[in-house]
Protein backbone atom coordinates (compact mmCIF):
# COMPACT_ATOMS: atom_id res chain seq x y z
CA UNK A 1 0.00 0.00 0.00
CA UNK A 2 1.32 3.42 -0.95
CA UNK A 3 2.26 5.62 2.09
CA UNK A 4 0.10 8.67 2.52
CA UNK A 5 1.85 12.04 2.88
CA UNK A 6 -0.04 14.91 4.44
CA UNK A 7 -0.18 18.31 2.64
CA UNK A 8 1.49 20.34 5.50
CA UNK A 9 4.43 17.96 5.50
CA UNK A 10 4.91 18.41 1.78
CA UNK A 11 4.79 22.21 2.15
CA UNK A 12 7.38 22.11 4.91
CA UNK A 13 9.65 19.95 2.84
CA UNK A 14 9.26 22.29 -0.12
CA UNK A 15 10.14 25.36 1.90
CA UNK A 16 13.17 23.67 3.43
CA UNK A 17 14.34 22.60 -0.01
CA UNK A 18 13.94 26.10 -1.42
CA UNK A 19 15.78 27.67 1.51
CA UNK A 20 18.66 25.25 1.30
CA UNK A 21 18.86 25.70 -2.43
CA UNK A 22 19.03 29.47 -2.12
CA UNK A 23 21.58 29.19 0.64
CA UNK A 24 23.76 26.99 -1.46
CA UNK A 25 23.50 28.59 -4.86
CA UNK A 26 22.77 32.25 -4.15
CA UNK A 27 25.48 34.89 -4.50
CA UNK A 28 26.68 36.81 -1.49
CA UNK A 29 26.33 40.53 -1.99
CA UNK A 30 29.51 42.49 -1.29
CA UNK A 31 29.61 46.18 -0.46
CA UNK A 32 32.45 48.64 -0.01
CA UNK A 33 32.88 49.49 3.69
CA UNK A 34 33.39 52.93 5.15
CA UNK A 35 36.90 54.33 5.26
CA UNK A 36 38.71 53.50 8.47
CA UNK A 37 42.01 54.35 10.08
CA UNK A 38 43.93 57.49 10.86
CA UNK A 39 44.52 60.30 8.40
CA UNK A 40 47.24 61.78 10.61
CA UNK A 41 49.02 60.09 13.47
CA UNK A 42 47.03 57.34 15.11
CA UNK A 43 46.88 59.31 18.35
CA UNK A 44 46.01 62.76 17.09
CA UNK A 45 46.93 65.74 19.28
CA UNK A 46 45.64 69.26 18.90
CA UNK A 47 47.17 71.75 21.33
CA UNK A 48 45.50 75.08 21.89
CA UNK A 49 46.71 78.07 23.95
CA UNK A 50 44.28 80.81 24.90
CA UNK A 51 45.43 83.51 24.81
CA UNK A 52 48.61 82.96 22.80
CA UNK A 53 49.99 86.39 23.72
CA UNK A 54 50.66 87.10 27.37
CA UNK A 55 52.42 89.76 29.40
CA UNK A 56 55.57 88.64 31.17
CA UNK A 57 54.44 89.94 34.54
CA UNK A 58 54.71 86.87 36.75
CA UNK A 59 50.98 86.27 37.13
CA UNK A 60 49.20 86.36 33.75
CA UNK A 61 47.96 82.92 32.77
CA UNK A 62 47.26 80.94 29.64
CA UNK A 63 44.84 78.04 29.40
CA UNK A 64 46.37 75.09 27.55
CA UNK A 65 44.10 72.41 26.15
CA UNK A 66 45.36 69.24 24.51
CA UNK A 67 42.61 67.53 22.54
CA UNK A 68 43.39 63.90 21.85
CA UNK A 69 41.61 61.81 19.25
CA UNK A 70 42.03 58.14 18.53
CA UNK A 71 42.71 56.41 15.22
CA UNK A 72 39.09 56.72 14.12
CA UNK A 73 38.88 60.40 14.94
CA UNK A 74 36.88 60.06 18.15
CA UNK A 75 37.82 61.78 21.45
CA UNK A 76 40.22 59.56 23.38
CA UNK A 77 39.46 59.60 27.15
CA UNK A 78 41.91 58.40 29.77
CA UNK A 79 45.06 59.24 27.83
CA UNK A 80 47.94 60.51 29.94
CA UNK A 81 49.44 63.71 28.54
CA UNK A 82 52.82 65.17 29.45
CA UNK A 83 53.25 68.96 29.19
CA UNK A 84 56.60 70.68 29.20
CA UNK A 85 58.15 74.08 28.44
CA UNK A 86 60.76 75.01 25.87
CA UNK A 87 62.37 78.22 24.74
CA UNK A 88 61.84 79.80 21.35
CA UNK A 89 64.42 77.48 19.82
CA UNK A 90 62.77 74.36 21.15
CA UNK A 91 65.21 73.63 23.95
CA UNK A 92 63.60 72.54 27.19
CA UNK A 93 63.64 75.46 29.63
CA UNK A 94 61.57 76.54 32.62
CA UNK A 95 60.35 79.91 31.39
CA UNK A 96 57.25 80.47 33.45
CA UNK A 97 55.55 77.51 35.04
CA UNK A 98 52.81 74.97 34.55
CA UNK A 99 50.40 74.09 37.34
CA UNK A 100 51.12 70.45 36.53
CA UNK A 101 53.21 68.52 34.04
CA UNK A 102 50.82 65.64 33.56
CA UNK A 103 47.11 65.48 32.96
CA UNK A 104 44.65 62.85 31.81
CA UNK A 105 42.07 63.44 29.10
CA UNK A 106 38.46 63.49 30.16
CA UNK A 107 35.49 61.97 28.38
CA UNK A 108 35.73 64.73 25.76
CA UNK A 109 39.35 63.81 25.02
CA UNK A 110 40.65 67.08 26.48
CA UNK A 111 43.46 67.51 29.03
CA UNK A 112 43.94 71.00 30.42
CA UNK A 113 46.73 72.75 32.32
CA UNK A 114 47.44 76.37 33.19
CA UNK A 115 50.60 78.21 32.25
CA UNK A 116 51.72 81.20 34.31
CA UNK A 117 53.95 83.75 32.61
CA UNK A 118 57.38 84.45 34.13
CA UNK A 119 58.26 87.76 35.79
CA UNK A 120 59.64 90.42 33.49
CA UNK A 121 63.37 90.15 32.87
CA UNK A 122 65.49 91.05 29.89
CA UNK A 123 65.37 87.37 28.93
CA UNK A 124 61.64 86.88 29.17
CA UNK A 125 60.28 90.05 27.58
CA UNK A 126 59.46 90.10 23.88
CA UNK A 127 60.33 86.52 23.22
CA UNK A 128 58.26 83.45 22.79
CA UNK A 129 58.10 80.06 24.40
CA UNK A 130 56.90 76.69 23.26
CA UNK A 131 54.53 74.49 25.15
CA UNK A 132 55.13 70.89 24.14
CA UNK A 133 52.95 67.87 24.78
CA UNK A 134 53.18 64.19 24.12
CA UNK A 135 51.19 61.14 25.13
CA UNK A 136 52.53 59.22 28.09
CA UNK A 137 53.37 55.76 26.86
CA UNK A 138 55.77 52.96 27.52
CA UNK A 139 58.75 54.46 25.73
CA UNK A 140 59.31 58.20 25.51
CA UNK A 141 61.67 57.73 22.55
CA UNK A 142 58.73 56.63 20.48
CA UNK A 143 56.75 59.79 21.01
CA UNK A 144 56.69 63.00 19.05
CA UNK A 145 56.00 66.29 20.79
CA UNK A 146 53.35 68.63 19.47
CA UNK A 147 53.86 72.28 20.28
CA UNK A 148 52.10 75.58 20.50
CA UNK A 149 53.89 78.92 20.66
CA UNK A 150 53.08 81.63 23.19
CA UNK A 151 54.41 85.16 22.79
CA UNK A 152 55.66 86.88 25.90
CA UNK A 153 55.28 90.65 25.82
CA UNK A 154 57.05 93.22 27.88
CA UNK A 155 55.29 94.62 30.91
CA UNK A 156 57.70 97.54 31.32
CA UNK A 157 58.32 99.58 28.19
CA UNK A 158 60.95 101.78 29.82
CA UNK A 159 63.39 98.93 29.59
CA UNK A 160 63.33 99.06 25.83
CA UNK A 161 66.39 100.59 24.20
CA UNK A 162 65.74 103.46 21.86
CA UNK A 163 66.40 102.71 18.22
CA UNK A 164 67.67 105.67 16.14
CA UNK A 165 65.36 106.47 13.24
CA UNK A 166 62.44 104.64 14.78
CA UNK A 167 59.04 106.28 14.23
CA UNK A 168 56.50 106.28 16.99
CA UNK A 169 53.41 104.10 16.62
CA UNK A 170 49.97 105.41 15.74
CA UNK A 171 47.61 105.25 18.70
CA UNK A 172 43.90 104.80 18.07
CA UNK A 173 41.12 102.73 19.53
CA UNK A 174 37.48 101.90 19.12
CA UNK A 175 35.01 102.37 21.96
CA UNK A 176 31.57 100.83 22.36
CA UNK A 177 29.29 102.65 22.99
CA UNK A 178 30.99 105.12 20.69
CA UNK A 179 29.29 108.11 22.29
CA UNK A 180 31.02 107.47 25.60
CA UNK A 181 27.75 107.70 27.54
CA UNK A 182 27.15 104.69 29.75
CA UNK A 183 24.59 103.65 32.29
CA UNK A 184 26.00 102.41 35.56
CA UNK A 185 26.53 98.67 35.22
CA UNK A 186 26.87 98.81 31.45
CA UNK A 187 29.97 97.27 29.85
CA UNK A 188 32.48 99.50 28.06
CA UNK A 189 34.27 97.76 25.19
CA UNK A 190 37.71 99.09 24.29
CA UNK A 191 39.49 97.72 21.26
CA UNK A 192 42.90 98.94 20.19
CA UNK A 193 43.42 99.63 16.49
CA UNK A 194 46.93 101.03 16.93
CA UNK A 195 49.63 100.20 14.44
CA UNK A 196 53.31 100.76 13.87
CA UNK A 197 54.52 101.30 10.33
CA UNK A 198 58.16 100.43 10.95
CA UNK A 199 57.72 97.68 13.51
CA UNK A 200 55.06 96.20 15.71
CA UNK A 201 53.22 96.98 18.91
CA UNK A 202 54.62 95.22 21.95
CA UNK A 203 52.49 96.71 24.68
CA UNK A 204 48.86 97.79 24.89
CA UNK A 205 48.21 99.71 28.06
CA UNK A 206 44.90 101.14 29.27
CA UNK A 207 44.27 103.63 32.06
CA UNK A 208 40.54 103.63 32.76
CA UNK A 209 40.61 106.92 34.67
CA UNK A 210 39.39 105.47 37.94
CA UNK A 211 42.69 104.01 39.03
CA UNK A 212 42.32 100.78 37.07
CA UNK A 213 44.80 99.73 34.40
CA UNK A 214 44.98 96.86 31.91
CA UNK A 215 47.64 95.50 29.60
CA UNK A 216 45.73 93.85 26.77
CA UNK A 217 44.80 94.89 23.23
CA UNK A 218 41.06 94.53 23.89
CA UNK A 219 39.23 94.85 27.17
CA UNK A 220 35.72 95.00 28.53
CA UNK A 221 35.33 97.17 31.59
CA UNK A 222 32.49 98.10 33.93
CA UNK A 223 32.78 101.20 36.11
CA UNK A 224 31.78 100.87 39.73
CA UNK A 225 30.70 104.47 40.25
CA UNK A 226 29.01 107.14 38.14
CA UNK A 227 31.20 110.00 36.98
CA UNK A 228 33.23 111.48 34.16
CA UNK A 229 36.35 109.57 33.22
CA UNK A 230 39.11 109.85 30.65
CA UNK A 231 40.27 106.58 29.08
CA UNK A 232 43.94 106.77 28.17
CA UNK A 233 45.43 104.26 25.78
CA UNK A 234 49.22 103.96 25.56
CA UNK A 235 50.89 101.78 22.94
CA UNK A 236 54.57 100.98 22.77
CA UNK A 237 56.38 99.75 19.69
CA UNK A 238 59.32 97.38 19.51
CA UNK A 239 61.68 100.32 19.31
CA UNK A 240 60.53 101.58 22.69
CA UNK A 241 58.55 104.62 21.52
CA UNK A 242 55.16 105.31 23.03
CA UNK A 243 52.08 106.96 21.66
CA UNK A 244 49.02 108.04 23.65
CA UNK A 245 45.39 108.69 22.78
CA UNK A 246 42.34 109.44 24.95
CA UNK A 247 38.55 109.44 24.94
CA UNK A 248 36.03 110.76 27.44
CA UNK A 249 33.51 108.51 29.15
CA UNK A 250 30.52 109.54 31.22
CA UNK A 251 28.85 107.03 33.50
CA UNK A 252 25.36 107.92 34.77
CA UNK B 1 6.67 9.77 3.85
CA UNK B 2 10.06 9.41 5.50
CA UNK B 3 11.54 8.18 2.26
CA UNK B 4 10.22 11.17 0.32
CA UNK B 5 11.48 13.64 2.94
CA UNK B 6 14.86 12.00 2.91
CA UNK B 7 15.07 12.34 -0.85
CA UNK B 8 14.07 16.00 -0.75
CA UNK B 9 16.53 16.76 2.02
CA UNK B 10 19.27 14.94 0.19
CA UNK B 11 18.57 16.90 -2.95
CA UNK B 12 18.62 20.16 -1.02
CA UNK B 13 21.87 19.37 0.67
CA UNK B 14 23.32 18.42 -2.65
CA UNK B 15 22.30 21.73 -4.12
CA UNK B 16 23.79 23.54 -1.14
CA UNK B 17 27.17 22.34 -2.19
CA UNK B 18 26.70 22.92 -5.88
CA UNK B 19 28.38 26.29 -6.17
CA UNK B 20 32.02 27.17 -5.96
CA UNK B 21 32.72 29.84 -3.32
CA UNK B 22 34.44 32.10 -5.83
CA UNK B 23 31.25 32.22 -7.85
CA UNK B 24 29.18 33.09 -4.79
CA UNK B 25 31.35 36.00 -3.66
CA UNK B 26 29.75 39.13 -5.01
CA UNK B 27 26.88 39.48 -7.44
CA UNK B 28 29.02 40.35 -10.46
CA UNK B 29 29.45 37.85 -13.29
CA UNK B 30 33.21 38.11 -12.82
CA UNK B 31 35.64 38.30 -9.93
CA UNK B 32 38.96 39.87 -9.06
CA UNK B 33 41.88 38.09 -7.52
CA UNK B 34 45.26 39.17 -6.21
CA UNK B 35 47.88 37.28 -8.17
CA UNK B 36 50.91 38.46 -6.24
CA UNK B 37 52.17 41.22 -3.98
CA UNK B 38 55.72 42.52 -4.29
CA UNK B 39 56.43 39.49 -6.52
CA UNK B 40 55.78 37.25 -3.55
CA UNK B 41 58.74 38.52 -1.54
CA UNK B 42 58.77 40.21 1.89
CA UNK B 43 59.00 43.98 2.01
CA UNK B 44 61.97 45.51 3.82
CA UNK B 45 60.75 48.67 5.51
CA UNK B 46 63.24 51.21 6.85
CA UNK B 47 61.79 53.24 9.71
CA UNK B 48 64.36 56.03 9.26
CA UNK B 49 66.30 56.70 6.07
CA UNK B 50 69.01 59.35 6.17
CA UNK B 51 67.13 61.11 8.93
CA UNK B 52 63.80 61.13 7.10
CA UNK B 53 60.81 58.87 6.89
CA UNK B 54 59.36 57.63 3.61
CA UNK B 55 56.23 55.70 2.75
CA UNK B 56 56.57 52.15 1.42
CA UNK B 57 54.84 51.08 -1.75
CA UNK B 58 54.45 47.57 -3.07
CA UNK B 59 53.03 46.42 -6.37
CA UNK B 60 49.85 44.37 -6.20
CA UNK B 61 49.08 42.34 -9.31
CA UNK B 62 45.36 41.91 -9.81
CA UNK B 63 43.52 39.65 -12.22
CA UNK B 64 39.89 39.85 -13.23
CA UNK B 65 38.26 36.75 -14.63
CA UNK B 66 34.79 35.67 -15.58
CA UNK B 67 32.99 33.36 -13.20
CA UNK B 68 32.02 31.38 -16.28
CA UNK B 69 35.38 30.10 -17.54
CA UNK B 70 34.03 29.80 -21.09
CA UNK B 71 33.10 33.48 -21.23
CA UNK B 72 36.35 35.40 -20.69
CA UNK B 73 36.08 37.84 -23.57
CA UNK B 74 37.25 41.38 -22.93
CA UNK B 75 34.41 43.85 -22.66
CA UNK B 76 34.91 47.26 -21.15
CA UNK B 77 31.52 47.11 -19.47
CA UNK B 78 32.51 43.97 -17.62
CA UNK B 79 35.76 45.46 -16.37
CA UNK B 80 36.22 46.38 -12.73
CA UNK B 81 37.25 49.70 -11.31
CA UNK B 82 39.21 49.29 -8.06
CA UNK B 83 38.29 52.13 -5.74
CA UNK B 84 39.22 51.17 -2.21
CA UNK B 85 41.96 49.39 -0.33
CA UNK B 86 42.28 48.45 3.31
CA UNK B 87 45.38 47.25 5.07
CA UNK B 88 45.41 45.51 8.43
CA UNK B 89 48.62 44.54 10.19
CA UNK B 90 49.05 41.50 12.37
CA UNK B 91 51.83 39.40 13.80
CA UNK B 92 52.50 35.71 14.04
CA UNK B 93 52.91 35.85 17.82
CA UNK B 94 49.36 37.11 18.27
CA UNK B 95 50.37 40.46 19.74
CA UNK B 96 48.24 42.66 17.55
CA UNK B 97 47.38 45.80 19.54
CA UNK B 98 47.38 48.61 17.01
CA UNK B 99 49.62 51.51 17.96
CA UNK B 100 51.52 49.28 20.40
CA UNK B 101 52.50 46.06 18.62
CA UNK B 102 51.61 46.85 15.02
CA UNK B 103 50.74 50.04 13.11
CA UNK B 104 47.16 51.21 12.93
CA UNK B 105 45.09 49.76 10.11
CA UNK B 106 44.59 52.10 7.20
CA UNK B 107 42.20 52.52 4.31
CA UNK B 108 42.41 54.61 1.22
CA UNK B 109 40.83 55.38 -2.10
CA UNK B 110 42.25 54.84 -5.54
CA UNK B 111 40.91 54.52 -9.05
CA UNK B 112 42.25 52.03 -11.55
CA UNK B 113 40.52 49.69 -13.97
CA UNK B 114 41.13 45.99 -14.43
CA UNK B 115 39.92 44.35 -17.63
CA UNK B 116 38.46 40.88 -17.77
CA UNK B 117 40.85 38.57 -19.51
CA UNK B 118 44.41 37.44 -19.56
CA UNK B 119 46.04 40.79 -18.83
CA UNK B 120 46.67 41.55 -15.19
CA UNK B 121 46.82 44.98 -13.65
CA UNK B 122 49.80 46.08 -11.56
CA UNK B 123 48.79 48.53 -8.91
CA UNK B 124 51.19 50.30 -6.54
CA UNK B 125 49.66 50.40 -3.09
CA UNK B 126 50.97 52.34 -0.11
CA UNK B 127 51.49 49.59 2.44
CA UNK B 128 53.17 51.76 5.08
CA UNK B 129 52.32 55.42 5.49
CA UNK B 130 54.82 57.94 6.80
CA UNK B 131 52.58 58.54 9.81
CA UNK B 132 53.07 54.96 10.91
CA UNK B 133 56.81 55.55 11.08
CA UNK B 134 56.33 58.61 13.27
CA UNK B 135 54.65 56.83 16.15
CA UNK B 136 54.90 53.59 18.10
CA UNK B 137 55.74 50.87 17.48
CA UNK B 138 57.79 51.78 14.40
CA UNK B 139 59.33 54.99 15.73
CA UNK B 140 60.71 53.07 18.68
CA UNK B 141 62.81 50.99 16.28
CA UNK B 142 64.93 54.00 15.31
CA UNK B 143 68.58 53.45 16.25
CA UNK B 144 67.93 49.86 17.25
CA UNK B 145 65.48 50.83 19.98
CA UNK B 146 62.22 49.25 21.03
CA UNK B 147 61.79 45.76 19.63
CA UNK B 148 64.81 46.29 17.28
CA UNK B 149 62.93 44.64 14.43
CA UNK B 150 59.32 43.72 13.87
CA UNK B 151 58.08 41.20 11.34
CA UNK B 152 54.42 41.49 10.65
CA UNK B 153 51.96 40.82 7.90
CA UNK B 154 49.87 43.31 6.02
CA UNK B 155 46.57 41.92 4.85
CA UNK B 156 45.36 44.02 1.97
CA UNK B 157 41.76 43.97 0.80
CA UNK B 158 40.84 45.52 -2.51
CA UNK B 159 37.29 46.53 -3.37
CA UNK B 160 36.24 46.95 -6.97
CA UNK B 161 33.02 47.90 -8.70
CA UNK B 162 32.04 46.36 -12.01
CA UNK B 163 31.66 49.28 -14.36
CA UNK B 164 28.41 48.19 -16.01
CA UNK B 165 26.53 46.42 -13.27
CA UNK B 166 27.82 48.32 -10.24
CA UNK B 167 28.30 45.02 -8.46
CA UNK B 168 31.12 44.96 -5.94
CA UNK B 169 33.89 42.39 -5.81
CA UNK B 170 36.73 42.09 -3.34
CA UNK B 171 40.04 40.30 -3.12
CA UNK B 172 42.56 39.85 -0.34
CA UNK B 173 46.24 39.09 -0.14
CA UNK B 174 49.00 39.21 2.43
CA UNK B 175 52.47 40.71 2.40
CA UNK B 176 55.18 40.15 4.98
CA UNK B 177 56.87 43.36 6.11
CA UNK B 178 60.10 43.43 8.10
CA UNK B 179 60.40 46.73 9.95
CA UNK B 180 63.75 47.88 11.30
CA UNK B 181 66.14 50.82 11.16
CA UNK B 182 67.94 49.24 8.25
CA UNK B 183 71.39 50.52 7.34
CA UNK B 184 71.22 53.46 4.94
CA UNK B 185 73.02 53.14 1.62
Give structural notes:
With 252 residues, chain A is mainly beta. Chain A is 8% helix and 40% strand. In chain A, strands 2-9-8-4-6 form a five-stranded mixed β-sheet, with no helix packed on it. Chain A has a five-stranded mixed β-sheet with strand order 11-17-16-13-14, with no helix packed on it. In chain A, strands 1-3-7-5 form a four-stranded antiparallel β-sheet, with no helix packed on it. In chain A, a hairpin with a 5-residue loop joins β13 and β14 (213-214). The model of chain A has no long low-confidence stretch (mean pLDDT 86). Chain B is elongated. Chain B has helices spanning 2-16, 21-24, 130-133; strands at residues 30-37, 43-46, 56-66, 80-90, 106-114, 121-128, 149-162, 168-180. By secondary structure, chain B is mainly β. Chain B has a five-stranded mixed β-sheet with strand order 2-8-7-4-5, with no helix packed on it. Chains A and B meet through α1 of A and α1, β4, β5 and β8 of B.
What layout of secondary structure does this protein have?
The complex is a heterodimer of chains A (252) and B (185).
Chain A (H helix, E strand, L loop, with lengths): L6 H19 L18 E7 L2 E3 L5 E9 L10 E7 L10 E2 L3 E3 L5 E7 L10 E9 L10 E8 L19 E4 L4 E2 L5 E5 L8 E7 L5 E2 L3 E4 L5 E11 L4 E10 L1
Parallel strand pairs in A: 2-9, 11-17
Antiparallel strand pairs in A: 1-3, 3-7, 4-6, 4-8, 5-7, 8-9, 10-12, 12-15, 13-14, 13-16, 16-17
Chain B lengths: L1 H15 L4 H4 L5 E8 L5 E4 L9 E11 L13 E11 L15 E9 L6 E8 L1 H4 L15 E14 L5 E13 L5
Parallel strand pairs in B: 2-8
Antiparallel strand pairs in B: 1-3, 3-6, 4-5, 4-7, 7-8
